[in-house]
Structures are given as structure tokens and as C-alpha cells.
Design a protein that fits this description.
By secondary structure, the protein is mainly alpha-helical. The chain has two domains: about 100 residues, Orthogonal Bundle (Rna Polymerase Sigma Factor, Chain: A); about 70 residues, Winged helix-like DNA-binding domain superfamily/Winged helix DNA-binding domain (Arc Repressor Mutant, subunit A, Orthogonal Bundle). Helix content is about 70%, strand content about 0%. The longest helix is centred in the last third of the chain and has 25 residues. It is globular. The protein starts with a helix and ends in a 9-residue tail after the last helix. The N terminus is likely disordered.
């Protein structure tokens, strides 16, 4: 019991340091603190409780094996959430796609309207694999400023509000809103440019 209280009193940075030295109990405390966020992120992408739980466990195993790579450039929550997202994307990419007819029938049944037909529009990103999309988006993120990248990660990965982000970044709420606005614009331009270099013309990426 004493050990548990001791770990619980440590901040994330200290727990990460201990975990990188092989302390599994310290890592267990990190899991306890952040498992709900990881599970919630995966469940949003794959709303199946059992599959989300399995993928959450896979994500934490990957986090443990890759913990030596964590340098503290971003918050631990951002880092582990990225692993969770990538784990989910890999799972979805490997899953065989259902025939279009099955998908339409399933959506119709859920909607409760037998005569409903979805509108299908061409997707300029469809030819890209999910993993490749993720890699290209990460490449675009690395080309914008650190402040803009951080506020985007806090908003769309950590799902923090303006007030929380302002506290984390030590700036005003107005600055957060400005960085988010220009960050989205910069990311869209970078991502669009990367896609067009590969022959994919996308009018509006974000």
C-alpha cells in the first residue's frame, strides 16, 4: 500500500523516468491515470466496447515497449494518444472492407427507412491507405510552427478547452484561439501541398 501511495504522489515526468528505467509499477500508475482518455479516443473511432478495450490494451503494450522513444517534447497524454490513434487506424486498415451493398443495408436498417439511399461523392483521399494518410498528416504537422502544432494537438487529440489549453501553454485564451485558427490554415495548406505533390488535387483539406 505504501508503494501505491508513493507512486500516486509522483508527477507524470517522474513516473516516466522510473518507467524508462524498467519500473513496471510506475508505468502502471501512468496507465491508471490515462487509461480512460486512451479508451475514450479509441471508442470514438471504433464504437465497440470489446474491440476498444482490446485495442486500448494493445496501445499500452506499444507505449511500454516504445517508452524509450519518449523525449518529453509533448505531453505524455499527447504521445500516448497518438499511439492509441495509430493502433486504431492500423486495425481499421487491416480489417477487410465489407461489400458496399452490406454497408448500405446496415445503414438503412439503423435509419429505419427502407427507401433511403446514401449520396456517394468521390473521395480524393480514398486512394490513400489510412496509414499513408496518417504519415502525410504527421509530415504536414511537422512543417508548421511548434506553437500551432501544440494547440492543434491539445484541441483535437487531447480534446482540451480554450481555458485548459491557455493554462498548459501559459498564454491567453485569445492567443490560443488565434494559434488554432492560423494553425488549421497552415496545416491545411501544408497537407494540400503534400497531396498535390503526389498528384492528388484537394480543394479543401480542413
Amino acid at each position: 500500500m505504501t508503494g501505491e501511495v508513493e507512486y500516486a504522489s509522483q508527477n507524470d515526468a517522474e513516473l516516466i523516468r522510473l518507467s524508462q528505467e524498467g519500473d513496471k509499477a510506475a508505468f502502471g500508475e501512468l496507465v491508471r491515470r490515462h487509461r480512460d482518455r486512451v479508451y475514450g479516443q479509441i471508442f470514438k473511432m471504433l464504437p465497440s466496447p470489446d474491440e476498444a478495450l482490446d485495442l486500448s490494451q494493445d496501445a499500452w503494450v506499444k507505449a511500454w515497449t516504445r517508452l524509450y522513444q519518449f523525449q518529453g517534447d509533448s505531453p505524455f497524454t499527447t504521445w500516448v494518444t497518438r499511439i492509441a490513434i495509430n493502433t486504431c487506424l492500423d486495425f481499421l486498415r487491416k480489417r477487410q472492407r465489407r461489400p458496399a451493398e452490406d454497408s448500405i443495408d446496415e445503414m438503412t436498417e439503423k435509419a429505419g427507412e427502407g427507401n433511403w439511399t446514401p449520396t456517394v461523392e468521390p473521395d480524393p483521399l480514398q486512394e490513400l491507405e489510412l496509414e499513408e494518410q496518417r504519415e502525410l498528416l504527421q509530415e504536414a504537422l511537422e512543417q508548421i510552427s511548434k506553437e500551432q502544432r501544440q494547440v492543434l494537438e491539445y484541441t483535437y487529440i487531447n480534446h482540451l478547452g480554450y481555458k485548459e489549453i491557455a493554462k498548459e501553454m501559459g498564454c491567453s485564451i485569445g492567443t490560443v484561439m488565434s494559434r488554432l485558427f492560423y494553425g488549421k490554415r497552415a496545416l491545411g495548406k501544408k497537407f494540400k501541398g503534400i497531396l498535390e505533390e503526389r498528384g492528388i488535387n484537394v480543394e479543401d483539406v480542413l
